């Protein structure tokens, strides 16, 4: 090794690199600032319409008619708080753990912080440390890295001279001297972090539908508001008379009543509140929802990509069993207990890998402890085996536990014991071991990790001197296979039941892993990923690069192994190309890009910070079994929100129809903004919130807006016509002079409010069906509450309500009867007209 490598950089060289910006400092930034978050939530189309309407009403001095404006504050507050929480999470995002590292400078070892490492530094990587920057190995002393967070491969990787190591991996054993060749934003971990930090708003079909309604209403509201104002001014004798008498204030309030009624402001608020409530309920089950809109996505998922490690398995390795091989030809063939003792000693290294730790843990619980050995050859990924040497006479063990219980004395035969990759060891031994190799392959096909234990009892040429073996470790051809050691990844106890639930719900699950496809396929079969059918496994290195072709291949594949991070992202994109709504689970940094790309990213609680930061949902206790609860909660919210959205859209339909009728017939607006506030709260807002909490597991399907409009049209048209007919006919029946008498106009508006309330109850009953349960009681309660409010002086005064008496009561009953007939006719006729219109549109598109 060149002397400069041992010396490292000089102080002046370090200063030059820092000046040139070649340090390991990464600038933390997200794509959205605090000002941008506030601006995006405050300056929305919805807020603009409501605020303008509220300001107009406040200018008139009629503050009671402006209470609808409070929905802006609540809705905006929910949005800002949610996105600020997401921003804080992204700001804390870091793949790398900030700590001090040992670097050689000016010929000495010095501790420097993570951010002060510079390009070209010569650095020590020691067991237990996370690699802070990309580097090349100058010399290795048995360095093994856990790169699972970067690649998804659960096995540790041995690194030798000339090999590259990447930031974000962790040293699990050994040490190495390395030279840094990429720092800061140019390092592998920083590149992944930068891509993961890009802010992405969850797409909500519900919010898209609401925004479509708002955009449509904007084009309708502005001209209609002007027309309403003009028509109301006409009813009081023109602009001069309106300004002279102060009637302009009432005309503004009347125009706002039409505008506010057309905007489903309660639906926007209820959506945010229900998303938030669903998030609170899920939090009680250790499931963190980081973006409220993702609750809706839960309901639409039809494709779930599962990372094996950390999702189906818990990432740990378990020692399953020892299989003794029959037919050992030599007389000193060891028994099972002696072999288990040798296995324990073989695993008892200074820095055992995951398999070694699993063996030590399992056998340690059975009472095994280290025995006296003469020599140890540690496991090497280059050799693929480890070895221990016992004295020629063997080692006697007294009082050791037996696997079946109790204890006994036994002797571990002397000689050399090997443990390692079966194909490597068997290839070096004399004789034909095809039957053993076939048995190994059968076990591997079942998802087991298979190691071979071999024993060479012939130590006559050793004579107690092991220096020849230490200086030149080798497999002796005279050794004989003794046993197979079977280990496997620990499968989560809840995995099979959870996957069965998803199958029953019509959600296609796939396992995507960086591990060997045979191993992953076997684990998938063990948890019955595809039920009775054996999963189809494929090596990701054989996948096409074209997204369209990849989408076709994926339709027939259940398990993918050897998947790279970019491929995971491409797989999600290919499923999107097939019109699937994709959820992706994971725990490693290698999953972060795919989780970001998916419609719904789900991270385990023990996942890397980068992965948890970009996921919309985090399973805090890392239990895969929470996913059915997560999906079911999303389905409940969305299925019920579709039901109650019809209530709000009914108000939009009848408000638009009434406003149009008022403009065309030049009559005073038949009710006040405070009327719509009172009636909307009792027949739409409060009952809708309760209905949205009802159990419902129906999978959500796209087309929210079309279904809601189709359901809302009959009720909206019926309500609008009922109020208009009452406003047109009642003044003549009752002899009211609504043009010159404020009292008569107040009576008409109070009566129309009663009609509006009654029709609202009819619509609520239709939405809440079936009524033979608590739903019927719900409708009855709010109907009674609305009637009771008219008899409470403060409520009646605040909302301008009147109890009809005398001839007014008779006229009101007549109007209500007429409204019931109109409602029945609209329910029968409007759906047919809607279907006819849809058929015409489809026919025109086909032609």
From TrEMBL:
Q: Where can this protein be found?
A: Membrane
Name the residues that span the membrane: 42-60, 66-84, 213-233, 253-280, 644-664, 676-696, 708-734, 746-765, 777-801, 813-837
**Signal peptide from the UniProt entry:** none
InterPro entries this protein is in? ATPase_P-typ_P_site (IPR018303), ATPase_P-type_domA (IPR059000), P_typ_ATPase (IPR001757), P_typ_ATPase_HD_dom (IPR044492)
How would you describe this protein's topology in the membrane?
A: Multi-pass membrane protein
Which of UniProt's keywords are assigned here?
Membrane, Transmembrane, Transmembrane helix
Pfam families in the cross-refs: E1-E2_ATPase, Hydrolase
Cited CDD domains: P-type_ATPase
Name the domain of life: Bacteria
- The segment(s) forming the P-type ATPase A domain are 102-195
Q: Does the keyword Plastid apply?
A: no
Q: Which PANTHER family match?
A: CALCIUM-TRANSPORTING ATPASE
Name of this chain's protein: Cation-translocating P-type ATPase
